[in-house]
Amino acid sequence: MPQFDPAVWSPQLVWLAITFVVMYLLMSRVALPRIGHILEERETRIARNLEKAESLKKQADEAVAAYEQRMADARARAQEALRQARDDAAEDAARRHAELSERLSERISAGEARIAEAEREAIASIRDIAIDVAAGAAQKLLGGRVDRKGVTAATDAALGEAG
Amino acid sequence: MANPLDQFVIKTIVPITVGDVDASFTNSSLFMVIAVAAVTVFLTRTVRDRQLVPGRWQSIAELMYQFVGNMVRDNVGSSGKPYFPFIFSLFMFILMGNLLGMIPYSFTFTSHIAVTLGMALMVFIGTTVVAFAKHGVKFFGFFLPHGTPWYIAPVLVPIEVLSYFTRPVSLSLRLFANLTAGHTLLKVFAGFIFAMGLAGVVPLAASVALTGLEFLLAILQAYVFAVLSCIYLHDALHMH
User: Fold this and answer.
1) In a domain, B189, yes or no
2) I want to staple B85 with a disulfide (CB 3.0 to 4.6 A). Which of A28, A44, B1, B34 is the partner?
3) Does A45 touch chain B (CB under 8 A)?
């Protein structure tokens, strides 16, 4: 076998040493740092992007929370305004209702007073007529003078009986 | 029929002698240079665009990096980080050597015991130096694990020493034997194809199947060599 010929060992060992040293230098100085740098760069890039995504997500969450807070505030304010308006309207209605009923009762009592007056006047005029009629009738029936005072008393008594 | 071992013959391209040492540029040297150039070009060209989302080729380069990186981290631990470029170079050098050997008419430098033993000794001496630098004389405790009863020590210590020193031998022989046997077998079967006439389809089918197996072995052996180097390095750094 050619492998066991010691004459060919030394050139192989010499060139193994030369080529391997060159190989080691090329790998450790050129090739490996380049690839390692690319891998490192990718790793940091991914980590940075993940970090950024996380912070953006946090911002979005905060924005959503703020929006919800403001919505709740606005809803509460609207509720309050609505309640206020309802209370105002009810109060106004009550007030106007009271005013109206007062005015009406005033007019009712005034009307009642006028009716009572008219009644009294009517009754008074009925009495005068009744006295005249009674006096006239008595004169015609009895002839002669009729005591006006007696007729009035008798009429009143009759009216009192009737009334 | 051509000798199936002819593929392993070292042919001198440029004769060089430094002092008494024969440092000729041979076909083996040529493929070592090609392997280094191919690995370097591949790893630098594919990541030239530095894409954030890697394309097909950049993915392969990144995959290689992470594959060996994980191998070092899993087998050596975080303290193995400074040795990552060494393990990576070793893995890629052997892998490219094995794969270049699969090209017809090429030369497989990993099928030579001189090369595999050279690399294994590099790992062996390197890890031993690292162990001494880290643990000093306490390194000798490696040969006598904690909690061993004293009366077993005379038996255990020679065994541990022997197993430690056979590491480079097994490491180099495994790679050398696998590559040599595989490539020889391929050549033998290929030689039968024309010799057997029409019945040559049988060795042809065997050759095709063996080629697939050889590709698997090319990758697997590079992986085994690198993993074992990682384990030896782990022993050197952490002592068992």
Assistant:
1) yes
2) A28
3) yes
